[in-house]
Amino acid sequence: MGTLSEAYKDVPMRLKHVIPLDFESTKVVPESHIWPETENFPLSDHILPSDDNEKSKSWIPVIDLMAPNVVELIGHACETWGVFQLTNHGIPSSLIHDVEFQARRLFSLPTEQKLKVLRSAGGATGYGAARMAQFLTKYLWHEGFTLAGSPVEHASVLWPHDHKTFCDVMENYQKMMKSLAHQLLLLMLKWLEVSEDELNWKLSMSQDALQLNSFPACPDPKSTIGLAPHTDSMLMTVLHQSHEGLQIFRDGIGWVTVSPIEGALVVNLGNLMDILSNGKFPSIQHRVFVNQIRHRISVAYFCFPPTDSQVAPFAKSECPIYSSLTVKEYLQIRAKHMEDALSVIRIK
Fold it and tell me: Which residues belong to any copy of the Fe2OG dioxygenase domain (predicted)?
């Protein structure tokens, strides 16, 4: 069964793109992190007026997982928005709090300690900058830590005598999120009317990864960005965010802030779901802005098939718009072409 690490080892990043800024000792935004404002990338949109924020809360679909018509609600949200906020999802608020606390504990460590678990140039797990960094002319106001499976190898380096709590919390969260993602995937595929045989094949193969994201308080938040506009690679992402900062792009509207709702998780679709649904469930472009006062934490759970499995539009698709390929092949195309990856495999 293929793993994430195997997919990335053949497309290594340059080490300079893996190492985040030393936020601990940075008092001003360095030139390397100052982004130019353009018509397509308006930095002035970082902080929306409060009335627009309230309006945006009513724009993004909010779905109760226990609703009797949940299949219809999720299907419609996936087709029209590619993102929704999920309530009554069954993940205890105490566990979400513990995950955020442990993430803050990790990112508050001295820089030299975090660098001991730096993600290798061709690696998938550990501490480091976002993979998109290698495609950008400027750097991001962000640091991350990726887990795939047990975090004990890295955690025992960070806390030689006190890593058990971190590992227990992360493993418990991954276990519960895997169950939730399985449930969401089932509902999405029911809306797409996938055959039972095809459905079972997809559901039995799901793997996962957990991405802890840190966006430190920034001395000049309007000059830089946490994560540049991008789509996610996998089937779906289930996100907890501590504070406002996430925005999604909506045709005809522009950038819309996904304001945190107490007790809700954000679900957005990725490239693999775009492929499987033959474009019916499009992956959503999103970005993250930073704050002058708050240190924003987000926890992203990614769901995907094993990297050696084949991905193609479901059999019901009469006119496939994407070529068939393995997850590993797609991730390697993505590692080379980033946001142009879907265009590369699109059937002309």
Answer: 206-305
Task: Give the range of the structural domain holding residue 212, as residue numbers without chain letter.
Answer: 4-25+48-345
Residue 117 lies in a domain: yes
Within a domain: 119: yes
Catalytic residues: 296
**Number of structural domains found in the chain:** 1
pTM beyond 0.90: the answer is yes
| List of E strands, the chain | 62-64, 83-87, 126-128, 143-147, 207-215, 227-230, 236-241, 246-250, 254-257, 265-269, 286-288, 296-304, 310-311, 325-326
